[in-house]
């Protein structure tokens, strides 16, 4: 029986014994028990309106890792980045900031920077590649800051080469344009650059990092920068309703896995490279980028969307593997795409098994068409 509703497909997914993308996620009960055990072992006390040993210690740890004087925990990345672009606009007395066409601020936040802060986002660079130095120098008017996402999630997790990144930093310094990093997935970049996070971030005046993407926390983010900048960010967090009475659940969930997850990302990246080599040999599948730069990539399928979804569901029923959830359109008619993030789920699955599953997917989808 082919599932017809979202609920039926959710049930089919939950019945699978294995998923291809991401890190294995515990049940709420398992998650909360793990948090309780870690909190007890580490003698954790609640924070109070952003103050306390737990949250302040985590902020200091992340700031040091990024080579910045200070950091502040925020309940969401949206809040952290809106505060950052607002502060740069205030400091520079400019309502314009630079942004890539695929940025989260541009695509997924309902134009919050305009609706709430009355700011204007200037599109910089080509929508299908990362921002480089020439893109910044081509901007006609001064910018309060330039938001640079590393890696750029919506274009397959692409990164500029190291020389390109250094040239962008130099161009920004020459023009006096502060760089703000959208580092939602910054943790994943070290395996490609083979440099410390502080080296990667050097030259960026402010940095946002996620407390859950890659780390497995419940939610939350951190904003890092100079001491005065972070003091002002705390003020704006209060104004935006983000200074919650207790953020310890979010902080504990990120802190307890922090070192372990960072230590796994090199293996996840190497697994991604191996997987990409195998998947490229399957007729009807293309990858972006062809050689992954982080432990994620986009898979493009030359097949009808409905046929692919039905083929995915058949494989889930027959083999207990869930290949993907979301399947979006592309600029090429007749093609679809999905995102694959390589976490611990794929570390224990052989390439041959994954290749067979995706080969079956394409055969079933094309036969149905």
Automatic annotation (TrEMBL):
Gene3D superfamilies: Aspartate Aminotransferase, domain 1, Type I PLP-dependent aspartate aminotransferase-like (Major domain). Its cofactor is pyridoxal 5'-phosphate. PANTHER family: L-THREONINE ALDOLASE, L-THREONINE ALDOLASE-RELATED. One of its GO terms (cellular component) is cytosol. This is Threonine aldolase. Belongs to the threonine aldolase family. Residues 33-298 form the Aromatic amino acid beta-eliminating lyase/threonine aldolase domain. One of its GO terms (biological process) is glycine biosynthetic process. Keywords: Pyridoxal phosphate. It comes from the Bacteria. The keyword rRNA processing does not apply. Homotetramer. The keyword NAD does not apply. One of its GO terms (molecular function) is L-allo-threonine aldolase activity.
